[in-house]
Amino acid sequence: MSRSIEIALLGCGRVAGHHCLAISQTPGVSLSAVCDLRAQIAKEFSDMYGVPAYQNYHEMLRKTPSVDVVVVATPSGMHFEHAIDILAKYKKNVLVEKPTFLGIQNAQSAFKTAKKLGLEIFPVFQNRYNKAVERVKKSIVNNELGKIRIVSVRVRWCRPQRYYDLSPWRGTYSHDGGALTNQGIHHVDLLTYLGGRVVKVNSIMRTLGSQIEVEDTVIGSLEYNYGGVGVLECTTAARPDDFEASISIVGEKGLAQIGGVAVNELQLFTPDPSQCQINSEDFIGIDGKGAVYGNGHFQIYKDLVSSLRGDKEYPVSEDDCMNTLALLDAFYRSDEAKRWVDIDFTQFSKRLGRRDEKISGLFRAPK
Questions:
Q1: Cα gap 98→80, rounded to integer Å
Q2: 118 and 187 both lie in a single domain
Q3: Domain range spanning residue 27?
Q4: Nearest 5°: phi and psi at 204?
Q5: Is residue 349 part of a domain?
Q6: Which of 50, 119, 144, 270 has the least C-beta neighbours within 10 A?
Q7: How many other CB atoms are there within 10 angstroms of residue 335's CB atom?
Q8: 315 and 244 share a domain?
Q9: Number of independent structural domains in the chain
Q10: Mean pLDDT over residues 229-258, rounded?
Q11: How far apart are alpha carbons 270 and 8 in whole angstroms?
């Protein structure tokens, strides 16, 4: 594909501004249209980037058939329905925001459909591109830390009741998931990306700070296939502000710790402390909505271009995505079973991603 790759954006929520900014600054891609059920919100993006705005993605794709990729940035519980429809009906590739899909079975179905049609699903896990994360990943590949012994995650953020009251999909198992699925998903991804393959987990979930059906607090333990262990603490019940989002790795040769607002600071790196400053980033002041998203979306679109042009594979493979989603699902299954559970691609949480047609109906566009 030698021409510019055309992108359409479905869902103009908080992260949409970051996608539009990244697209506008990435050679080889261009924004062709934006869509949101809220006409005024879509118009704001339309005016800013000089592209047509739609309230109905069916109309958008019928009127802009040259689109190559649709960004699915709708509520999490709608990702599967929207992605499947776009893949099957319009034969378009999809780039899907976190957590990609709610439910392993939905992810399996979506990837199967894409493969059958010769299309691509590009999962978004932008924190993998952070300088600190890339440096620690390199140290693991190069054996600078030695064999991993302990991986620890701590997410201590604040989401008050008014955050969940913003929309009926928030704080639901069907369309949102709790602290782990919404806020902690990138750390769940890093548990596998940096730590390796998890074989079993044990977790306790509680709702302590808000009146919602999902968890706002999770404590978990996990075991890796090579014998290393991990611990996870994730909460949105911290008050009165966000305090910490970190991951640390204890290896036989040293320790690495990444912290900051979005795992953007290499705070400790005992193999070579001088690496800390040069591999840390300041996300404050990034243009577009949401400095917490960092710079990763810019690299995502570069990799998307390279993938569609056949230069190299997109770095987040189907297996990568499935391993992360299986781990996420296992935390919920463990809490449901009140015991340790194995990572299993054939067992599914009873809660996460369960159907709720009433809420889904609020986010469906007429065909």
A1: 12
A2: no
A3: 5-126+358-362
A4: -130, 125
A5: no
A6: 50
A7: 23
A8: yes
A9: 2
A10: 97
A11: 44
Each residue's pLDDT tens digit, 149-172:
999 999 999 999 999 999 999 999
Q: What is the pLDDT of residue 11?
A: 98
| Average pLDDT of every residue of the chain | 96
Alpha-carbon distances of 162 from 70, 77, 167, 209, 212, rounded to whole Å: 31, 20, 10, 12, 11
**How far apart are the C-alpha atoms of 231 and 77, rounded to whole Å?**
27
Q: Mean pLDDT throughout 302-317?
A: 97
- Asked whether residue 100 falls in the same domain as residue 161, the answer is no
Place of tokens 């297996």: 319
Global pTM? 0.96
In the beta sheet, which residues pair with residue 30? 6
Q: CB-hemisphere CA count at 13 Å for 127?
A: 29
User: Do 332 and 173 contact (CB within 8 A), yes or no?
Assistant: no
Nearest to 52 by CA among 95, 7, 2: 7
In single-letter form, the type of residue at position 94 comes to V
Question: What 8-state DSSP symbol labels residue 78?
Answer: G
Query: Rounded to an integer, what distance in angstroms lies between the CA atom of residue 261 and that of residue 265?
Result: 8
pLDDT tens digits for range 172-223: 999 999 999 999 999 999 999 999 999 999 999 999 999 999 999 999 999 9
Nearest to 55 by CA among 72, 69, 38, 71: 38
* Residue 139 token pair: 């140290």
Amino acid at the residue 99: P
Residues 6+ apart with CB under 8 A from 37: 55, 363, 365
Nearest to 222 by CA among 315, 333, 126, 104: 333
Q: Among residues of the chain, what percentage have pLDDT more than 70?
A: 97
Phi, psi of 72 (to 5 degrees): -95, 100
